[in-house]
Every structure is written in structure tokens, then in C-alpha cells.
């Protein structure tokens, strides 16, 4: 019986991974479809002389990345990636994307032959030929079907059980339903789209549009202007997704991963905040990351650069005037007023 | 030659009508397609012993409804509706909707036989059988083709020439293009949709969703929740429009009149503000209208009631849980926490 049950493993244990583990840990116990125990691979750290995995497994709290919220007792922290994923049939990826390839190579021989995965990783990658989805990177390493989850999901608000929605992009409906069962909750409503690429492109490009929202806030241009720029940004996100991924669906942009996440990010996120400060203080991005984000890197500026280089290579700059203007304000000293004039 | 030119007349001279007259007055002089003179029908009032029409025609400023911004000199205020519309080939309607029928009856015999119109009037009407578009009311009275214009358009921000967008819904493309020529400007970008109904339904229902945003703000539920409720509201706006107007287009909701106006209204508008105060102060809507709006009526509460009664009659309440919950919180004493629980 047990061998037919799904064995779920969470790869990652940061702020978002810990919040997600609260949902997953609860949901697996509701259905006989899943084994109760869920391993969570934790990048081992030592806090005040104690290992983080030990703290999680005894106090049931990730005191470093999600302090103040208990994790379910069936979430078991495991520091060794191969041991963590042994026999896994469902993998939940929630690590910074630069670690993905290396982790996949290590886990490849240990997972079940009928394993599938879902990526909660924000952003997309770029190489010389263009954008590269995180799910495609994982597929190329592990050769497993992949879903993606993204939405207006601030981890601490989810942990506090404040109502929100999310979107799962799937390739085949059965996998989508399985993943929904893992995440769905009264306070965390899961929507569905058959569009793995669109969901991930939204999650990456909204950070670029949020830089524009921050520039607009610094100009004190009023609500009409800000909502117009957000709308134009949403259209360019859609145009970009369709240009590089032909199966992208229009509906995706009306889901939580599209319009809702864009709104949240353009009103509350750190990309918006740093972009406003960039104009007001004239400080460099590096200094702002140091001062406002404790040295963490902004995703929006990196993505703006990647998008610009890709569009330039493909002779498509004029199809994306808003994202190009945002890049030029951020990196080429274009006056911020051009945010509306160059559309 | 002059007889082939379009004669444009603006019906109304409030805050929005006056801001629109600045765009129209400028645009007609750019093209030989239009007569330079544009009559503006003004509901006559006396200010400090002087008639409002005289003030507008001498000072070129609507000192009561749009103080601080000059109107173009080719905008001519006319207090008599029949005289104002004589020979008109293009009518721009921008009066409170309760005056429409009576005005139409008066102007019917004076307008040109090939006249067309555009409605800038916010909101829709309801009767016993359901929603009633302002453009359909005008068509039933004057039997002329009608367009509708709506968007994230706060009149004072437009007068201050802050960048924004708007949407024109048209029935036939030629009329749409004509109307675009009247309004389009570098700082007031006109988008197009072949969807007269969708544009107007957006303009009305966004005020209901903004009440929900205000309730959410009072609960201090955070950004995830607010953007989720806005997104669900947008989907219900779309569902409602499709239910009552079969030709409504999905794209309309991605235009300025859809997502952008919804964002503006849920962050900045008076419906949002009064709804937050309704929860925080427990005062009645009437008292809040008195205290916060100088006795002006809220559009969102009236529309919420009309929508509820229509859906109830049509046994469709369960298709619109969010708008129904907003109505019940606003009028039936439902606890505000249900805003998320009843979705």
C-alpha cells in the first residue's frame, strides 16, 4: 500500500519554502494518496552552535527564515540531498535558481522513475539564445514532467494565513490536480492553467514592470499614470511570453500569477521601493541593495538587463518600448520623465 | 466645404466634460475634418451674479468645475440645448445619466441626420429586466450609432496633462477612428475595442469591486489579499458583462477601461475610501456621503444594489460570490471578514 503512495520531498527551506511546507505538511495528511512524512532538504547552517536541521526537527520552526510560525511535525529536515529525495515521486523545488543544476545532478539516481516536479522558484534564466525556464532546466537534468507555481504570494502573509490565491501551470491535467491537492487551502486558493511557460514569465517580468512603477512613484505622477504603466507592462509581459513560447495562453495573465502578482509587486515589493529610491537619491543600484536589502540582489534589474539583451539580439526592441525604457533609465542614464514619453 | 465638416457638440460641462473639452478643442483645430467651433451645452448656473456660460465664454475657464485650467477659445458655452446641438454631426455626452433621456428628447429634431455620438458617462442604468447601457438609452431616443469612452481617467490629472490612457468602444471602425481623432493626444492615449457594452460595464462595476478593496483595507489584510480580491473582481466583472451582453470581448478587460481603471479606483477612488470608513467608523453610507463627499452620492453602493437585485431575479447569485458578499456587507450587516471566507 505504502509503495503506491506519493512520496513528496521539498527541495529548499528558505522563507518561501518554509511557508510552503506548512501547506504541504497539512495537506498530505488529509489524503491517503500521500505518505505522511515529507522530507525537506535543508542547506545546512549552524546557528548559535546548533544545526538548522536539528532546530527544525526538534523545535519545528525555521527560526532563521520563517521565525514565529511552526512547521508541521511531519516535515522532516534532511541535510543530505540524496538521502532527502530517495524514492521521491513528487519534488517541490524552492531554492535559488543558481543551485538547481547542481542539485539535480546529485539527486538524479535517487528519485523514483515516475517522479514529477513543481517549481516555486521565482524568475527565469537567460542564456545566449534567450530566456530559459527553470522548469526546462530541471527537465533537461532529470527528464521529469514539471509544473510551475506562482502568484501574489508574499511568504509571511501566507504563513499568517491571510487569504490569497496562486496559479499552477501544468502540462497534463493529472499532474496539475496532484499539485493542487498539495497546496490548496481555504486561505491559499489554487487556480489552474495549462501554461507552464506563461506562469514563469509572469513571475520574472513583473519585477521589471515594478521598477517602472517605482520610477513613476518618484515622479509623483498620480494614479492614472501608474495604472496605465502597469497595464502597458502587463501587455508587454504577454507579448514577450508569446514571442518566446508559442503555447502561452491569454488567460494566464488574468490569473493570480499575472495581474494580481503584478499589482502586489507594483504597490508593495522591493523592486518598486528601490526604483523609487534610485530616482530620488541618485544612488547606484549596488548601494541601494546594500542599504535597503541588506546586500540581497534585486531581481528586477537583472531581469531588465537580460530582457534588453535578448530583445536587442533579436531586433525586437521596438516591440517592447516600456521594458526598454525601464532598462535605459536604470542603466543608461535616460531621464526618468521618458518613462511616459517613450511609450 | 464647411457643410462637409464634422460639427462637434459637447453635452455637459462638469469636471470631466471640461477636461474633455480641452482635448477636443485642441484636436478639432488640427484637422480640416472638423469645424473649429465646438459648442458645449452648459447647465446654466449663476456664480456671484454672473452666468456660468458668460464666465466660460469670456474667461475661458470653468471656474466652478475645473478651476485653474483654461479651456480652448473655440469651446463656446451655450445654455440652450436645442441651439447648442443645431446641425451637430458628433455628440459627446458627458452629463449625469439621469438627465440623458430628457435632453435627448429636446435635441432630437435639431441634430444632423447622419449624427453619431460617444458617451463619456460613467456607470450603467438598471431597470426591472436588468442592466441598461447609457449608449442604448441614447440610441433608443435618438437612433444614432454610439461609441463609449472609459478608462483610468481622473479629470484633474488629465487637465494637468499627466500621462494616461483611455479606451473607446465602437460598433463600426469608422466611428471609432473619428472619435479617436477627437480625443487622442500624446498624454491621453486612446485604445480601441469593438465592444461598446464591455467598456461601459467595466466603468460601472469597478466601483463595486472598489468597495471590496476598501473593506479589505479596513481589515489590514496585506497586499496578497487585496490583489487577489481585485483579480476576482475583474473576473466577475467579465462574467457579468458576458452574461448580459453576448458580444463582450475578453480583451476589453485588459484595456485601460478594465484592469487599469480598476487599479486606479481600488487604490485612489472615493468608493474605496468610503468603504474603508464604513467599516472603521460604523457610520451609515448616508452619513459618510455627507461627511466625506459633501453629500454627493456614491456610485458603488447604488450599483452594488442594482447588480444584486438583477442577479437575484435571474437566480445567478452563486455565480458572483464576491459582488454578492460586497452587497451583503454593505447592506445586510454581514461581518466584513466574510469578504474572503465567502468567495
Account of the protein in words:
- The structure is a homodimer of 343-residue chains.
- With 343 residues, chain A is of the alpha/beta class.
- The first copy, chain A, is built from 15 helices and 12 strands.
- Chain A starts with 7 loop residues before the first strand and ends with a helix.
- In chain A, 54% of the residues are buried.
- The first copy, chain A, folds into 2 domains: 8-196, NAD(P)-binding Rossmann-like Domain (Rossmann fold), CATH 3.40.50.720; 204-341, N-(1-d-carboxylethyl)-l-norvaline Dehydrogenase, domain 2 (Orthogonal Bundle), CATH 1.10.1040.10.
- In chain A, helix 8 (196-219) packs parallel to helix 11.
- An 8-stranded mixed beta sheet of chain A has the order 5-2-1-6-7-10-11-12, sandwiched between helices. The first copy, chain A, has a two-stranded antiparallel sheet with strand order 3-4. In chain A, strands 8-9 form a two-stranded antiparallel ribbon.
- The longest helix of chain A has 24 residues, at 196-219.
- At the A-B interface, helix 9 and helix 10 of A face helix 9 and helix 10 of B.
